[in-house]
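Need tokens for this chain, all 304 residues.
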Amino acid sequence: MPELTLTGLRVTLEVAQRGSFTAAAEALGYTQSAVSRQIIATEAAVGAPLFERQARGVRPTQSGEALVRHARHMLAHVEAAELEIAGLRDRIAGRLAVGAYPTAAAALVPRAIARLQNTHPGVTVTLWEAGSPAQLRRLRAGRIEMAVVAIGEGLPDYDFSGLRIEVVRTGRGMGVAVSTDHPLASRDQVHVADLAQEAWIVGAGGEGEPQFGAWPTLEDPRVAHEARGWQTRLGLVAAGLGVSVLPALAADTVPNGVKWLRVEDPALVLNRETVMVTAADASSAARAMLQAMRDEIGHAPERE
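Here are the structure tokens for all 304 residues:
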């Protein structure tokens, strides 16, 4: 009976993420026929079809979704083992340049860097904070090896052809930052209706950068101030001059005088994601950074 292989799992995961055999082949450096053979062999091993064809590309069947879910975990464990063994042999060393957009650069990425350097002290990491378009330009030019970018509604449709992408799944959502003197600061969670009369401090940045306006489902919100940087926005919040939308990804970075609150809003649909992007042939140091990000996300406390 045919058995599952790591190559088959990698190909299956890539096809599922990219939605076509052709795109998966380009990302992996395979021919399309080689991808097809791997999928056929994997389907034989599990005894079920993994993909169904659509007008444009393919999508996983129920069996395919189940295998992809497990494959993601299995491949992460295999990669972690490879990296640990490589670290024991002192093979991961040198310099690594990482880019991240401001919210991710505030807490998640620095903690992952610390985790990486604790495991692989021979790696020196530099962090470059920038908007997503600038990061991708530098990644393709070889000036950084990993980019942490935002994608989704209201942002450009970036070209990821030839690159490897992985979604950052934190299980966290959006909230608001308020002054510790604010009447709502005695709570840990508020309903969106509680925010209807608030003055809002919103972002003002470059084209293609993820911006945070007032709470997106409120009608006719009152904007009190605009500021480009998070430090300025949160400074205005601390002074009691308004409240600001803040992702839970950066909730642990609020300064003294500011409190983060989760917002209950049944009408809110989040259509943005954070993704980690590397070259398809990422270096061992970049792959170690990917694993450090996964580990940091897995150990981050959930905000209930």
